[in-house]
Amino acid sequence: SGSYVFAIFDQLQIQVFKEAFTIIDLDRDGFISEKELKDMWASLGIIQDDKFCAEMVKVSPGQINFTAFLTFMGEKRADTDPEDVLHNAFACFDVQNTGYITQAIFTNALTQLGDRFT
Question: For the residues 69-77, what does the mean pLDDT come to?
Answer without folding.
Answer: 85
